[in-house]
Amino acid sequence: MTSTGVLWIVGTPIGNLGDLSPRALEVLGSVDLVACEDTRRTGRLLAGLGVQVPLRSFFEGNERERLPELLGHLGAGGSLALVTDGGMPAISDPGYRLVAACVEERVDVRVVPGPSAAIAALVVSGLPTDRFAFEGFLPRKAGDRARRLDALRNDPRTIVIFESPRRVAQLLRDVTATLGDRRVAVVRELTKLHEEILRGTASELAAELADHDLRGEVVVVVEGDREPATADIGASVAEAQALVAGGMRPRDAARTVSARHGVGANDVYRGLLTDPSPEEAAEDQH
User: In 3D, which of 263, 216, 257 has the Cα closest to residue 238?
Assistant: First the structure.
């Protein structure tokens, strides 16, 4: 598809309307169509801004069936803004399929950065921000949830999780049981009138919130593993060698193995340089 249309990914406020950027307002007022999760909610937002533009619902349940219409609009040269109910679209919200389809069809995709509940909660949590893992919403089924958390057991990165206010206490109990009694922050209603930030250990906050009727949007930030499992450096180098044999660059292979096992990327990289792969060793013998 050759298109003169433009898809704009527009960040909208997660609460305080004052967080909408002037550029976001300009784009929303200039496009032909806005795709949004809830037309009533977005309609109220735009009306309050004095913006009149047609809306199309675009949520998890109708993404696939709505996609051809939106691509057709863009293919005909139209402009489209993608928004969510709050924050950046496609972050645990609809939008990924549309963006991916536009990239595939060579439609121009542009972004107007805006508020993000995940990033806002992370930086206000008081936990390390240099490396973090965003997990979105965890599975509702206990077994699936436990397996997801268990996969993060030895991950040194801070973990950011979206959760329903009704399930926060249970999540904190699951964190305690699976990951240990780590430091956490429960961040609620960011930027809104009743903004609340609770900090403590997972068990402390689980007890505090057990009989507490939470309301609103909640983000839970969990401390990463303070004592990552010490991986066998030899096994890590061997794993990196296999990645290199598959076509990955040595430096990238070292970083990949480092992220998986918590070993130093430089240690793995030095091992790659000093310890030849079995194939290289075999070649040296001939």
Answer: 257
